[in-house]
Specification:
With 352 residues, the chain is an alpha/beta fold. It is built from 10 helices and 18 strands. It folds into 2 domains: 213 residues, Alanine racemase (TIM Barrel, Alpha-Beta Barrel), CATH 3.20.20.10; 129 residues, Lyase, Ornithine Decarboxylase, Chain A, domain 1. Strand 14 and strand 15 form a beta hairpin. It binds pyridoxal-5'-phosphate. The site of pyridoxal-5'-phosphate has 10 residues, from strand 9 and helix 9.
Length: 352
């Protein structure tokens, strides 16, 4: 009776192993909703990879608040991707020695070391992302004033690779890091492609590149994953029958399908009908479909077709419109849900 993520365990684990083996220095990223799997499950999998002898010594989380979710399930270093700020309550002393902070502004280093003497940290250098990070001159300045704490490297968060990639930018940034003459050779990178990583590794052989990867690791083999909702109810509708919170009336005969999964799971209204030009809208109206009433596509697929929401999703369930000629599933049947894993809270993760 739930929105479920079904994982082909053997296939998923083989993928995790393969990516880890192919990516020396990999730092798995477990953040947010745990990419659909939950943070705890990802932390256990990172530990499992390390136990397999693949040397996963560090796990990255998005926020300080996520640390308790992973700290008891994974034994290695815990890097926090959100930069340290003075208003951030300090992590639990039981884990603070394992935490690697991100320092993205020159003045924050002193603040961090005051709040947690001996803290481990990386210095984040700004990239074309411009989310967080200090400029190269700021990095060089900080490099001259280091003292206290444990510098664990420099962090670079690049944007997602576009057509031309970021080889040129990455080289410029690495040159800036080298010019800082820091007492570290470790560079924590995000969103470099495998090809860029290997090119950079050969041109900067003295540097130790640590790729921080989430999506390609956890969600890289989509064939291992399937999201499904369960049919909770089916109602036959005659033309003119009313239904839903808003008392809509059915313009045609068909079925109303109630499936698990609603706004509480992150199920939202998809972008409205793709072809919404006036002429096509007029054609739809002429055909007299429910879609003429401005219904939007749902992420649920029934009988091989993407179905329309009969009305906006409810908190725990969604109502779908099934036209009269469609095959009607039975209560208890599963239907495919094509959802964004990073934005969906599943009721259940089933490893089969
Ligand atoms: C989320 C995040 C990553 C991982 O991103 P994916 O696209 O999921 O691989 C890496 N680095 C930083 C700084 C991030 O915030």
């Amino acid at each position: 009776m739930s929105l479920a993520l079904t994982v082909d365990g053997g296939r998923w684990r083989a993928h995790l192993r393969a990516v880890t083996e192919a990516t020396p220095g990999l730092v798995p990223v477990a953040k947010g909703n745990g990419y659909g799997f939950t943070l705890g499950r990802l932390a256990r999998k990172a530990q499992w990879l390390d136990d397999q002898g693949l040397s996963v010594d560090t796990l990255a989380v998005g926020t300080y608040e996520e640390l308790p979710e992973v700290a008891t399930r994974y034994a290695g270093n815990l890097m926090v991707l959100t930069p340290w700020r003075s208003f951030q309550p300090p992590p639990d002393p039981a884990v603070s020695k394992r935490v690697i902070h991100t320092v993205s502004r020159p003045d924050d280093l002193a603040g961090l070391l005051e709040a947690q003497p001996g803290a481990r940290y990386v210095l984040e250098l700004e990239t074309s992302m411009r989310r967080h990070g200090m400029t190269a001159p700021q990095l060089w300045d900080v490099a001259r004033r280091l003292g206290g704490g444990r510098l664990e490297g420099v962090a670079l968060h690049l944007p997602l690779a576009t057509g031309s990639g970021h080889q040129v930018e990455a080289e410029r940034l690495l040159n800036d890091v080298v010019a800082a003459e820091l007492p570290t050779t470790t560079i924590w990178v995000s969103h470099l492609t495998p090809a860029e990583l290997s090119t950079l590794r050969s041109s900067y052989a003295d540097l130790d590149l640590r790729p921080r990867i989430g999506t390609e690791l956890w969600l890289g083999d989509r064939e291992a994953l399937r999201a499904t909702a369960t049919v909770l109810d089916v109602h036959e509708l005659r033309r003119g029958d009313s239904f839903g919170y808003r008392g809509r009336t059915s313009p045609r005969a068909g079925h109303l399908l109630v499936v698990s999964g609603g706004t509480a799971h992150g199920i939202g209204l998809e972008s409205p009908m793709g072809d919404s030009g006036l002429r096509s809208r007029a054609a739809v109206v002429a055909r007299g479909g429910l879609d003429a009433a401005g219904l939007t596509r749902s992420p649920f697929w029934v009988g091989g077709k993407q179905r329309l929401f009969a009305e906006p999703p409810h908190m725990q369930a969604s109502m779908l419109w099934l036209p009269g000629d469609a095959l009607v599933p039975e209560v208890g049947d599963r239907v495919d849900a094509r959802v964004r894993y990073t934005a969906t809270s599943f009721d259940r993760v089933e490893v089969v």
